[in-house]
C-alpha cells in the first residue's frame, strides 16, 4: 500500500487543470501563507522553543521575519517576475517576438531539515507557490513541534487541492522519492543529498541541493580581537551552533589565537552569563543522537572555554577547542553544534591552501582590518557564500542568493532566485504566419550559390 499515491494523484490533477497558473491564484496562496505566519506567530514561537529552546528573538530574526519578508517581496514583485522577458534579436528574427517565458514546473517536492524548521520549509515554499506549482512539503521529523504546526495548521491557509504536507523520516522520504516529481528541493546533509539526487535521477528530475560542510573562518593578525570574537561567537553559538552557515572553525596564527581566546571568553560571558546553561538565549541540541555525537567531539584537541554538557537537557556549553589535529573527527565532519575549534596557520597563504585542499564550503568568512586580506580570501577561494568581517550574510538580504557549490550543494534560492528556481525558463519565438518568402531562404536544395552563407 503506497501512502502517498492518492495525494500525489490529486495534486497532479490540480496542476493539470491549470488552476495554479494565474497570478491571482498564486497571490491568494502567498497571502494565505502570510496570514498563517501572522495568525500563528505565537504557536510557531512555542514550537521553536519546544524543538530547539529557541528564544523569541532568534525565532523572529532567523525564521519568522525572514519568511514574512519573502512573502511580502514575492507579492510585491509577482507580476514583474512572471512577465515574459524579451531577449536580444538578430536580423533573422527581426519581425518575430522572442522572449523567455517563466512557466511553473508542475508538482514539486520540498524536503526540509530541523535546524531552522520554519525558514527552511517556508522560504522555498514561497518560491514554489509564486512560480505557480503544486507542492508537497516534507518537514523534518526531528523538529516535532514545528512539524505538527506545519502539518495541522498550514494547510488550512492554502488551497488543499494544490498543496500537501507529508510526514515521515528517512524511510518515508525514500518511499516518497520513488514517485516522479517535476522538481525536488532538498536541504540537509551531503550524505542524504546523494540519496535524494540518485532517487531523482531515476526520473530525470532536476534538484536543488542545499547542503552543509565545514565553514572556515580566517582571522587575520591585523584585527580588533574583541570585535571579531563578538561577531564569531554570536554566529557560532546562535541556535546552539546548529546553523548551516555558521563558522565551523577558526584559522589564525598562534599570536592571534592568544589575543582571541580572552576576547571569546568575554563575548560568551556577556551573551550567556557566567552559567550559560541557565541563559534563555542559548538553544539546545535537537536530539539525543546529535547530543552524543557532539559530546564525542569535545574529546578532540584541548578544551579552553566551556566543555560542559548535560544529556538530560541536551545542553552543551559554548566551547572553544585548541591544539586540534586535522585528522581528529572535529576537523573531519561538520560540527553543527556550539563547539569552535581553532586551527593555527602562519599566514594568509597557508590559510588559503588549507581551505582549498578541502571540499568547497557553504560559507567562508574572513576577518581583517585590511580590505586587501579580505579581498584576497574572496578572490582565491570558493564557497557558496562569503562574509568579510561579518557572519550572517544570508539572513539580511533576499537579493543575495543562498546556495552551495561542489560538496555544499547546487542551485540557489531566496527572493527572485527562488521564483526562477521553481520556474521553467521556456525559450519562445513567435513568428508571423505569413512572410513565407523569408523562410524559403532556409529550405533545400542547398544549391551552389546558397553555400556562400
Ligand atoms: P538530514 O539530511 O539528516 O535531513 C534532512 C531531511 O532529509 C529530513 O526531512 C529527513 O527526514 C530526510 N532524511 C534524512 N535521512 C534520510 C535518508 N536516509 N533518506 C531520505 N531522506 C532522509 O539533515 P538534517 O540533520 O535535518 O540537517 C542538517 C544538515 O543540513 C547539515 O548538514 C546542514 O549543514 C544542512 N543544512 C543546509 C542548509 C543550507 O541552506 N545549505 C540549511 C540548513 C541545514
Automatic annotation (TrEMBL):
Which Pfam family is one of those matched by this entry?
Answer: Aldedh
Q: NAD: is it a keyword of this entry?
A: yes
Alphabetically sorted, this entry's keywords are: NAD, Oxidoreductase
**What residue stretch is flagged as signal peptide?**
none
Q: Where in the numbering of this chain does the Aldehyde dehydrogenase domain appear?
A: 12-424
Active-site residues, as the UniProt record annotates them: 210, 244
InterPro entries associated with the record: Ald_DH/histidinol_DH, Ald_DH_C, Ald_DH_CS_CYS, Ald_DH_CS_GLU, Ald_DH_N, Aldehyde_DH_dom, Aldehyde_DH_NAD(P)
For whether the record's keyword set contains Amino-acid biosynthesis, the answer is: no
One Gene Ontology term of the biological-process aspect is: aldehyde metabolic process
GO cellular component annotations of the record = cytoplasm
Question: What Gene3D superfamilies does the record point to?
Answer: Aldehyde Dehydrogenase, Chain A, domain 1, Aldehyde Dehydrogenase, Chain A, domain 2
Q: Which SUPFAM superfamilies match?
A: ALDH-like
Q: Which PROSITE patterns match?
A: ALDEHYDE_DEHYDR_CYS, ALDEHYDE_DEHYDR_GLU
Q: Name one GO molecular function term.
A: 3-chloroallyl aldehyde dehydrogenase activity
The UniProt family comment states:
Belongs to the aldehyde dehydrogenase family.
Q: What is this protein called?
A: Aldehyde dehydrogenase
Q: Which gene encodes it?
A: ALDH3B2
Amino acid at each position: 500500500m503506497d501512502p502517498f499515491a492518492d495525494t500525489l494523484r490529486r495534486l497532479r490533477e490540480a496542476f493539470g487543470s491549470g488552476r495554479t497558473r494565474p497570478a491571482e491564484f498564486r497571490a491568494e496562496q502567498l497571502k494565505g501563507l502570510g496570514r498563517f505566519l501572522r495568525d500563528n506567530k505565537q504557536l510557531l514561537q512555542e514550537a521553536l522553543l519546544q524543538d530547539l529552546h529557541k528564544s523569541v528573538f532568534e525565532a523572529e530574526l532567523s525564521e519568522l521575519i525572514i519568511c514574512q519578508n519573502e512573502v511580502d517581496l514575492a507579492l510585491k514583485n509577482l507580476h514583474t517576475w512572471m512577465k515574459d522577458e524579451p531577449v536580444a534579436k538578430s536580423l533573422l528574427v527581426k519581425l518575430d517576438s522572442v522572449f523567455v517565458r517563466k512557466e511553473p514546473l508542475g508538482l514539486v517536492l520540498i524536503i526540509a531539515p530541523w535546524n531552522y524548521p520554519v525558514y527552511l520549509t517556508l522560504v522555498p515554499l514561497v518560491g514554489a507557490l509564486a512560480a505557480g506549482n503544486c507542492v508537497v512539503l516534507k518537514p523534518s521529523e526531528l523538529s516535532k513541534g514545528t512539524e505538527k504546526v506545519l502539518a495541522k495548521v498550514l494547510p488550512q491557509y492554502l488551497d488543499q487541492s494544490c498543496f500537501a504536507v507529508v510526514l515521515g523520516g528517512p524511510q518515508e522520504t525514500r518511499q516518497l522519492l520513488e514517485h516522479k516529481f517535476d522538481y525536488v528541493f532538498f536541504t540537509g546533509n551531503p550524505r542524504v543529498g546523494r540519496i535524494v539526487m540518485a532517487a531523482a535521477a531515476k526520473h530525470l528530475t532536476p534538484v536543488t541541493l542545499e547542503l552543509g560542510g565545514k565553514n572556515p573562518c580566517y582571522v587575520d593578525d591585523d584585527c580588533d580581537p574583541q570585535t571579531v570574537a563578538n561577531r564569531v561567537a554570536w554566529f557560532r553559538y546562535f541556535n546552539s551552533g546548529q546553523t548551516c552557515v555558521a563558522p565551523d572553525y577558526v584559522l589564525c596564527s598562534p599570536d592571534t589565537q592568544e589575543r582571541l581566546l580572552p576576547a571569546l571568553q568575554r563575548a560568551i560571558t556577556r551573551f550567556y552569563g557566567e552559567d550559560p546553561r541557565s541563559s534563555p538565549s542559548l538553544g539546545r541540541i535537537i536530539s539525543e543522537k546529535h547530543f552524543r555525537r557532539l559530546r564525542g567531539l569535545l574529546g578532540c584537541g584541548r578544551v579552553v572555554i566551556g566543555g560542559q554538557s548535560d544529556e538530560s537537557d541536551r545542553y552543551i556549553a559554548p566551547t572553544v577547542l585548541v591544539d586540534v589535529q586535522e585528522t581528529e573527527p572535529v576537523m573531519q565532519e561538520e560540527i553543527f553544534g556550539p563547539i569552535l575549534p581553532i586551527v593555527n596557520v602562519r599566514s594568509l597563504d597557508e590559510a588559503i591552501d588549507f581551505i582549498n585542499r578541502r571540499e568547497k564550503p557553504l560559507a567562508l568568512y574572513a576577518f581583517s582590518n585590511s580590505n586587501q586580506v579580505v579581498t584576497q580570501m574572496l578572490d582565491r577561494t570558493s564557497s557558496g557564500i562569503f562574509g568579510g568581517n561579518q557572519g550572517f550574510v544570508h539572513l539580511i538580504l533576499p537579493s543575495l542568493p543562498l546556495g552551495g557549490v561542489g560538496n555544499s550543494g547546487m542551485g540557489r534560492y531566496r527572493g527572485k532566485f527562488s521564483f526562477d528556481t521553481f520556474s521553467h525558463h521556456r525559450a519562445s519565438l513567435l513568428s508571423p504566419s505569413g512572410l513565407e518568402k523569408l523562410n524559403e531562404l532556409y529550405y533545400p536544395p542547398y544549391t551552389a550559390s546558397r553555400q556562400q552563407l
